């Protein structure tokens, strides 16, 4: 952060833009490993991204996940365009942490819940990294706000 201008580094904007695109891309991948019975043999069911799951079952947890993804992408997009409010990174941290918890707990699935695919693991890691990054951004915004509210030294 530049003390003279009080600006937050532009790196956050670039990272938020990339994370928004990656978040959208991950939603089109299967997050959970499923098997279907074909006769007496169980085979992997490679389909069923978040959007396919929403279209077929529309379970409450899937709807909540889709809404959280839409909120997260909207906040990441706002952050990518240089939002200087501390509310944007805090919102990003909350939404990404909630998505990580939602994917890791797998609510709405029968016991035992399905295993995570590699894309499911990527989604959890991305959520954690996004939350940590946005908390760091919020700290930078708070430091900027604190440094701009302190009066300059009035000594002659």
Automatic annotation (TrEMBL):
Keywords: Membrane, Transmembrane, Transmembrane helix. This is Uncharacterized protein. It comes from the Bacteria. The chain crosses the membrane at residues 57-79, 86-106, 118-139.
């Amino acid at each position: 952060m530049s003390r003279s201008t009080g600006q937050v580094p532009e790196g956050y904007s670039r990272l938020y833009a990339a994370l928004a695109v990656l978040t959208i891309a991950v939603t089109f991948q299967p997050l959970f490993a499923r098997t279907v019975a074909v006769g007496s043999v169980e085979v992997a069911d490679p389909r069923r991204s978040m959007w396919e799951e929403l279209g077929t079952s529309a379970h409450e947890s899937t709807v909540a996940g889709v809404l959280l993804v839409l909120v997260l992408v909207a906040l990441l997009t706002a952050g990518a365009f240089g939002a200087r409010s501390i509310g944007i990174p805090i919102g990003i941290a909350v939404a990404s942490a909630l998505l990580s918890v939602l994917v890791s707990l797998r609510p709405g699935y029968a016991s035992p819940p399905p295993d995570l695919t590699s894309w499911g693991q990527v989604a959890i890691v991305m959520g954690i990294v996004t939350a940590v990054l946005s908390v760091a951004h919020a700290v930078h915004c708070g430091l900027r706000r604190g440094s701009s509210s302190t009066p300059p030294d009035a000594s002659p």
